[in-house]
Amino acid sequence: MKFVTQDWIKRSAIIMLVSVFFSIFLWSVELTQWAGLINANSPEPHGEPKAIGLLVIAISFLKITILTLVPALICYGITRVINALKRYVKVARTA
Amino acid sequence: MEQTKNDRENNQTQRSLQNKSWKDDLSKTRFVMNLWLLVGFVLVCAPRATGIALHEWLSVVFIVPLVIHLLLHWDWLKALPKKFVGKLSGESRFNAIWDALFYLAMLMVILSGFLVSEVIFPLLGIPLEILPVWSKIHHDLGNLLMPMLGIHLAMHWPWIKSMTKRMLTKKTNQIADGISSNEVVK
What we know:
By secondary structure, chain A is mainly alpha-helical.
């Protein structure tokens, strides 16, 4: 854990301070017209806690898996295509 | 005969280097901590599975591995502004911008999560008027974090792959060492 504890108080304080600074900035979203419009048009502020069932649990984790893996695979594919193109251009230039 | 002895010694040195505890190796520490972060992320992203109360408490705990993740990449964070202005490959530049956006989105989800808290704040006796806008931001951005994480992982896939191999090789070597030491005892 020496890598985590190395100067960790100072570093964590900096991370927290930067995060608080950005949070205050992000909080100002509440003052925008867009926020006012949403607040005025939504009757229910926050959804009630849903009952926990096996199917709900399975669907929740399936949703996370799909929403994470599909973009990951697309991004990985794009990076591979870009790298292949780069290699192709490099070979074509040297030839 | 002499060469075989040297080979054996070299193999043992290599194995002992590979068998170093994960705590003594920065990459391995990052790998283990990232694994915890991923497990935490998955649990936090499933409020319907965990229930709202556990979701809120887990989210508070999740801040710890998140800060550790940033601490373990401190040198990269520190060097980034200079590197970003100077020379940086297109992929690394995209990576840096993506990481910054990911951080801001996560910050917004955490902030909005606190502002729509149904368990922690009332428990602490802090009166809170939940505004629909924060509820919408928390829900929508929370869902956006998953594809953002997917892209973040894909961008670091070569590192994840090589580290997984290294961690698995270590285990195989430990098993092999266990067998050979047993043979010596016999």
